[in-house]
Amino acid sequence: MKILVIEDDVTTRNFVTTALRQEGFVVDETGQGREGLMMATSCEYQLIILDRMLPELNGMQILAALRAASITTSVIILSAMDSIEDKVAGLSAGSDDYLTKPFALAELLARVNSILRRHKANSPQQHELIIGPLRLNLRSHKVDVGGESLKLQNKEFILLHYLMDHAGEVVSRMRLFEAVWDYHFDPKTNVIDVHIANLRKKLEAAGANDMIETVRGAGYVIR
Fold first, then answer.
1. In the chain, is it the N or the C terminus that has fewer CB atoms within a 10 Å radius of its CB?
2. Number of other CB atoms surrounding residue 49 within 10 Å
3. Which run of H or of E encompasses 180?
4. Cα–Cα dist 156/179, whole Å
């Protein structure tokens, strides 16, 4: 998932972007309204976190320009303007959420994930994922490389599906553990490393070399 943060306060921007990247999101950022609008219209994002008060163009002007251009990317407005009228104005202008400053990081992340879950639920269901020679079919629960079937254990299939479903996104070990094993992450466990190693061996034996990349200190990614 790719997120754009448009926020002129450096401390707030760094706080938000660092937290989002630690959660495994790909994040672009800017502190300028005009540049933010240009980025939002020239690149595909799943979510924009938009400060209301910005130099050059304010958040409401950016939001109006996006909606006028039929760009439907989800938007969370951040603002110190906390009256009911301000919130109503922001939501009525086409934002998906409105969070007042100061805010708790946990609340922002919860709202981000809630919006992205809705976005994913409303997207057409994919039954087949293809990256290079690698193809995963959710209906048949089969994986093949260049047409040759690949035999995977159930957890290996789920792990590969999650990585392919988040292709290009660095996924943290914590997210993988909680998504695949469905219980709280234990930082001392090596179960993810073992499964990644086994998955790599099977992919490489089938001719799909260097599909899974380790990003040191961050997690894993299929590009």
1. C
2. 27
3. helix 173-180
4. 12
